[in-house]
HAD-IB family hydrolase
Amino acid sequence: MAALGWITPRRRSATARSVLAGEAAAEAARKSAQEAAGRAGESEPAAAAGGAAEPEFPVAGDVRAAAFFDLDNTVMQGAALFHFGRGLYKRHFFRKRELMRFAWQQTWFRLAGVEDPEHMQDARDSALSIVQGHRVSELMSIGEEIYDEYMAERIWPGTRALAQAHLDAGQKVWLVTAAPVETATIIARRLGLTGALGTVAESIGGVYTGRLVGEPLHGPAKAEAVRALAAAEGLDLSRCAAYSDSANDIPMLSIVGYPYAVNPDSRLRKHARERGWRLRDYRTGRKAAKVGIPAAAGVGALAGGTAAAIALHRRRR
């Protein structure tokens, strides 16, 4: 990924760095999508939604609409960055001590169901130090393997069916995540999505420098990335949808006409109910009950995604 320049916190405000991160993510996402379009036929086919129930939205044929999906705990169980760390450890990129820290952060995330800013900062700094000096092409190749090893089986079938509904309606579907854009792009391609907006790490001559372009694509930076991409793609945000599990993504959810809270944390669930946003829960009955959602809602959502789960399972065999 070509560097767009390194801006330190002392030279730019947090808002400016969010804009920079968002613009960098949008540029990277469009470039990846254009390259993928040029290789049409090489990408894996999208999994069929099968008998999953059609969501209330999207509107078929509305090409000025698109869908934006958060990744961690929305599309996939757990955090992509932690799964990526496990794969790098297996390939001897770092020591057991770092793996144990990753494992603890991932366990906390899965149990609490919310992001801890300190954990995310620690994971980001660790990942940058680990990949510094490595070629982008090397990490992309390894990322493909890690997806198969740790991520493919953690995709939520219900959320996958929602994304497929947008694709079937002729709309573009983008992942929007704080995970590295390279990892996010691999996941998007494997799921048959249009592309991904992710955190852009600086590289020079195809080699990672260990620095970021702007800041992680998190919170307000996600909203900036969606705005930048919508402007470049000629989208009408009032006709677009966004999906997330976290209150950290309220800025992104608030700029579209169709916000969805998917597997929401307690703060987002409260916010969504106050504003009449749509809610979807694809966790188990026990997990749904833990966060205050009727168990039947979780079980019913899982049943609704059964066909998609079968399709994904067959494709991986």
Summary: The chain has 13 helices and eight strands.
